[in-house]
Amino acid sequence: MEERDAVIRKILEKLYIEFNPENLSGLTIDQYRDFFFSIFEYINLYKDKYHLTEEDFVEFSKNIHHKYNYDEYKDNCWERVAFFMDELIFRFSTPPPYFFDSNFDDFRNKLKKDFTEGNGL
Predict the structure, then answer these.
(1) Pseudo-torsion of CA 45, 35, 12, 8, nearest 10°?
(2) Whole-number Å distance between alpha carbons of 117 and 43
(3) From what superkingdom does this record's organism come (predicted)?
(4) What local confidence, expressed as pLDDT, does residue 105 receive?
(5) The total number of structural domains that make up the chain
(6) What is the dihedral of CA 34, 91, 112, 12, to 10 degrees?
(7) Cis (ω within 30 of 0) for the bond into 96?
């Protein structure tokens, strides 16, 4: 179980770095989309091997929310974090064939349409 706990800490540390509001608030929608998919790819490397659960992803969301005060930033910074975490929890806790049913490119193409100004991003 120590390996699993180490992976959870590693993912959380990466999320702390990547979701720094100083960086996140300035991203364009295209940059945010690329960022979004790169984090998903990173987490997907560990998902099955270490049996990450929906509860793990909910905890990631809570920890990120409490790490930074996103209300101090403009450009829909918290909305971007919330969008990511909602998708993370939903996609990683939904069994196949919905998530990654064939490969990451299919997933990316399915989700690209959700990256619009109207979604609060």
Answers:
(1) -10
(2) 25
(3) Bacteria
(4) 74
(5) 1
(6) -20
(7) no
Please give the DSSP secondary-structure letter assigned to residue 49. T
**What pLDDT is stored for residue 74 in this prediction?**
67
| CA 51/CA 36 separation, integer angstroms | 21
> Within a 13 Å sphere around the CA of 22, how many CA atoms are in the beta-carbon half?
3
Q: How far is the C-alpha of 77 from the C-alpha of 24, rounded, in Å?
A: 6
Phi-psi region of 100 (alpha: psi -120 to 50; beta: other; left: phi over 0): left
Structural tokens at position 16? 């702390």
Distance between CA atoms of 66 and 119, rounded to whole angstroms?
23
pLDDT digits (tens, 9 = 90+) for 52-91: 777 888 888 888 878 887 777 766 677 888 888 887 777 7
